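Is glutamine placement plausible here? Inputs below.
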Amino acid sequence: MGALPLPTLDQAVSALRDGATSSRELCESVLGRIDTVDSRIGAYLYVDREEVLADAAAADRRRADGSQLGPFDGIPIAVKDNMAVRGQPLTCASRILKDFVSPYDATVIERLRSQGFIFLGRTNMDEFAMGSSNENSGLQATSNPHDSSRVPGGSSGGSAAAVAGGEAIVALGSDTGGSIRLPASFCGVVGVKPTYGRVSRYGLVAFASSLDQIGPLTRTVRDSALMLDIISGRDPRDSTSLPEPAGGCASCLSAASVNGMRCGMPREYFEVEGLDPSVRECVENAARQLEAEGAEIVEVSLPMLKYAIAAYYIIATAEASANLARFDGVRYGLRDSEGEAESLLAQYRLSRARGFGDEVKRRIILGTYVLSSGYYDAYYLRAQKVRTLIRKDFEHAFTECDVILSPVSPEPAYKKGELATPLRMYLADIYTISVNLAGICGLSVPCGATESGLPIGLQMLAPALHEKRLLQAAATYEAIRGDL
Ligand code: GLN
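Reply from A.M.:
I modeled the complex. Tokens:
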């Protein structure tokens, strides 16, 4: 792919501070790159060129007269199409929201806006964040920047592809069962899923509310730390957001070391059927490099892994079926304008039948079924019990280690259309979904590539609220890994 034309976030901050670049220059180079490569990659659903350049001019004026909003003033960022940015489309890559424009800012967007970030546009995703490849987008296909015949991963595939393809300096994604970490690993960028409650979900279109978290996709670990410091923290508009003070993620990296850190390798994770040898090799190699740096590698056990996919696909679909009820063509969504519907019920039916794609419908049906009377105890309640056991698995493992190392996905980016059945797609989530069920934090950091040059990610996990430890481990690894 060659060297990327854009600076990292950290480099952009320094260049703006030193007057080596302007917001206009940064935005023009991003827009120029989008013009050159996005017809091939398809990362963006929408780019507001004029607005971006007007915002850049305003940021440059503020810097010139000393009234800049902070070190990030004038830096452009890409946003997954399920977070509300005032005045921009918000479609969740669904036909049902095709013409919806957000009247307000999500909390994360408000925070970024107050720092002077410029919202470049909307990135593609699996419809309502349901999927792992972006093939479920109702609007557009996105290709992996490393190989156009392959998927970028999902559901935040547009954000990962934009960063990997040099079409964004940084991006935001959301992770309900792996949707930041998986595309980060497929595209060769860093992606962080914060602890549940760390980042406000206000203004994020809900998929599964007890699992959803917003997080950054960036080129470096340091850039993700900078982003987390801005977007984390208590928000009175999201009752699940945590009161614990956030911040300090970037500043803790200067003292980063893994000396004496215990890195756990879960036995069951390496016994997964279909684990690609090149993925195993890269992850084991990363562990050896960390060991050479003073970390202690220990084997741990997460025996509930085998129930994770079943529990996740019950809980996530149950929550989705409730959350998506509002898209009925009246409160939100496509309305049949031809007057074909004969009754209100028929109108709902028509709107939802036309507006939702197959995977979304499948999940609404599954979720409604597992919540229905008679099946609730057998499925939903049971899955909640399994969820508690999964959380306990991690609690126990973290008495024996400080961070966990694992693959992100059993395979590197696959060919479009290759995982042809929904079940095959669900099974590929084996390494990521337990993390959301347990509510802990995790990330993907590039750790190598296949012979043909497809990126491979290393997943690192830490207990809830231990983002600093997680980022320190990842930054140390990134430094000793060398260039890929
Ligand atoms: N692949 C998982 C799913 O389809 C996770 C998606 C996500 O994290 N949003 O549900």
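Short version: The first strand starts at residue 44 and ends at 47.
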